[in-house]
């Protein structure tokens, strides 16, 4: 039987741990809700950009001469992998990194550029001997439109300079607050079928004239389209991370409650046994005195 001071110490330790896990759950809940609001606001802008792009493509029979729409048969690819900076979030990091590693190895590309967002992804690929070519700091814990624009502009510059042929982002898609799955999304090149099912803002009413040209307008919108995709991937990954952390911390809190229940029962039994032993000793001592 454990000593009463030892049980009391264990109860104190578990109570302190429970306070931490509960606080982390509440913090992640607030951050998850913030991230989803960011994502929803981005969707409004992103949807409008995609509607405009489809309108230009269809209403002007655009030849898609922009470099972002040109298919290249080469074997050079960029993978942008998004993970978290921290652990204690269940299998969130493990799942997305496992998918990224599998996708890269099965891609059979002759040349691969690796971009990482999140310290976990950076350290993971370093351990595999696949040192990331570019690593973005702090974006995983603070996704923002300027940060997404920085990443996208660098990718676009490399693509226009013919340094790679395809670009993919590996992130965690948040379906709802209880379901989030790793996903691979193609960023470049942009294909006509990417806009299937998107409704245009206005019905077609004849050819329109764009200044300086419809291709230039489409090229400019394509950059905004890519920024929206990158920002959406960052925001969804951020929300998924905190959703996973909420699940992990909630499970930890419940485990702490169960452990506290067992420890308090053990503590009460130990106290009862100690009191019983003391009473037994007192009664035995009194009997000895009377017999003497």
TrEMBL record:
Q: Where in the cell is it found?
A: Cell membrane; Membrane
Instruction: Name the Pfam families for this protein.
Output: ATP-synt
Record bears the keyword Cell membrane:
yes
Molecular functions (GO terms): ATP binding; proton-transporting ATP synthase activity, rotational mechanism
How does it sit in the bilayer? Peripheral membrane protein
Q: Does the keyword Cell membrane apply?
A: yes
GO biological process per UniProt: proton motive force-driven plasma membrane ATP synthesis
Cross-referenced InterPro entries: ATP_synth_F1_ATPase_gsu, ATP_synth_F1_gsu, ATP_synth_F1_gsu_CS
- Assigned GO CC terms: plasma membrane; proton-transporting ATP synthase complex
Keywords for this protein = ATP synthesis, Cell membrane, CF(1), Hydrogen ion transport, Ion transport, Membrane, Transport
Give the family per the record.
Belongs to the ATPase gamma chain family.
Could you tell me which HAMAP family the record lists for this protein? ATP_synth_gamma_bact (MF_00815)
Q: What's the subunit arrangement here?
A: F-type ATPases have 2 components, CF(1) - the catalytic core - and CF(0) - the membrane proton channel. CF(1) has five subunits: alpha(3), beta(3), gamma(1), delta(1), epsilon(1). CF(0) has three main subunits: a, b and c.
The protein's role, per its UniProt record = Produces ATP from ADP in the presence of a proton gradient across the membrane. The gamma chain is believed to be important in regulating ATPase activity and the flow of protons through the CF(0) complex.
- Listed name of the protein: ATP synthase gamma chain
Species name? Candidatus Avichristensenella intestinipullorum
């Amino acid at each position: 039987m454990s000593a009463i001071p030892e049980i009391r110490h264990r109860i104190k330790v578990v109570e302190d741990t429970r306070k931490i896990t509960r606080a982390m759950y509440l913090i992640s809940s607030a951050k998850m809700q913030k991230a989803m609001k960011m994502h929803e606001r981005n969707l409004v802008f992103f949807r409008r950009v995609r509607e405009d792009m489809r309108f230009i493509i269809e209403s002007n029979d655009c030849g898609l001469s922009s470099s972002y729409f040109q298919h290249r048969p080469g074997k050079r690819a960029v993978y942008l992998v998004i993970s978290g900076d921290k652990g204690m979030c269940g299998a969130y990091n493990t799942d997305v990194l496992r998918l990224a590693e599998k996708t890269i190895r099965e891609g059979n590309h002759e040349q691969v550029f690796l971009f990482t967002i999140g310290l976990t992804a950076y350290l993971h690929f370093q351990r595999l001997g696949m040192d990331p070519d570019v690593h973005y700091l702090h974006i995983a814990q603070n996704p923002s439109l300027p940060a997404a624009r920085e990443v996208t502009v660098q990718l676009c510059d490399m693509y226009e300079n013919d340094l790679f042929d395809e670009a993919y982002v590996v992130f965690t898609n948040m379906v709802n607050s209880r379901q989030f799955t790793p996903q691979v999304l193609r960023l470049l090149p942009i294909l006509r079928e990417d806009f299937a099912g998107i409704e245009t803002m206005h019905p077609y009413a004849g050819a329109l004239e764009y200044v300086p040209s419809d291709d230039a307008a489409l090229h400019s919108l394509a950059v905004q389209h890519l920024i929206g995709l990158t920002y959406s991937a960052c925001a969804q990954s951020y929300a998924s991370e905190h959703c996973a952390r909420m699940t992990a911390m909630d499970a930890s809190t419940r485990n702490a409650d169960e452990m506290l229940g067992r420890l308090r029962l053990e503590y009460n039994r130990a106290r009862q046994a100690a009191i019983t032993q003391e009473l037994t000793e007192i009664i035995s001592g009194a009997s000895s005195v009377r017999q003497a």
